[in-house]
Amino acid sequence: MAKLSELEFFAIYLGEAENFFAGIPQTIDPHPAPPEYAEALAQLRAKCEAIFESTQRNEFTVRDDGISYRVSMLVSITETIYVLRRFPPKVPDIHTLGIHPRHVERLMTPNITGLVVVAGAFGQGKTTTASCLMTARLAKYGGVGITVEDPPEMPLEGHHGHGICYQTWVEQGGFGNEIRKAARWSPSIIFLGEIRDGESAAEALRASINGRLVICTTHAGNVTMAIERIYSLANAAAGNSEDVANLLANGLTAVLHQRLEADASGAKRPKIQFLWIGENDGREHGKGVRNTIRQRRFDQIENDVMLQLNQMIMMKGKLG
């Protein structure tokens, strides 16, 4: 039986009659599964079916042949397909992701608190980047990290250098309550798998102004849209535009939007759009961005992103 662990791919579509791979180098997606993988894929589908039967969750994680997957059920008009997205076997070092060293330096600033948002489309590495940031900070600075996920994805549970992480699996729709519970466990970092509704957005903002670091992911097309999305979701739950804008302005520390692009070797690297509002440098500029958010002038945020990018380019030019 051919082993899936020996094949390079990004995702699997497990159908009732046909199976396909995505992300096999030098192939067009979706690529029909070669016959030699039929037995391994049948066993993997059986695992997925068993987990669904016991949990009734349509999203979950499964581990098979040393590979961890995030599984989503796709019910078409003719069959049920299990879509499995492959995760790295371990959390990479944040310095190996291809993110600009200046951005990494800011994200690794000692003692930062507030909300750090990693945004992007589906399958663009948001969870990997956010997980790398969490484990890097725990390893370097110590502390306790708590994750609030549905389902848990990256292997974060356990010791990371001086720190430790505890992963929790949230019941569907229970993000807001779980964030409130996590805040009572005195963590230095809360990792929120995804801001997907108003209650989770509002609770993430409240946690971000109480002296801890909150790292979250969200779906958005750019930095501005990520900020607008969190504001809109939280506002829908809290119902007070001014209070939500103040929470967001006071709590937000950084927004990183990424999409994966293939380099000359074919390896995918993140292309980053970055907004920093931390206090280690650019203090006056940070105040300006916060005022922009407080006044809900989201259309001006793109200017701040470009200003910071130009400043970084000019600094690089002077150093070079």
From TrEMBL:
Signal peptide coordinates: none
GO cellular component entries: plasma membrane
Gene3D superfamilies associated with the record: P-loop containing nucleotide triphosphate hydrolases
Domain Bacterial type II secretion system protein E positions: 58-262
Transmembrane regions listed in the UniProt entry: none
Record-level Gene Ontology MF annotations: ATP binding; ATP hydrolysis activity
Record Pfam families: T2SSE
UniProtKB keywords: ATP-binding, Nucleotide-binding
InterPro entries: P-loop_NTPase, T2SS/T4SS_dom
Protein family (similarity comment): Belongs to the GSP E family.
Protein name listed in UniProt: Type II secretion system protein E
Provenance organism: Sterolibacterium denitrificans
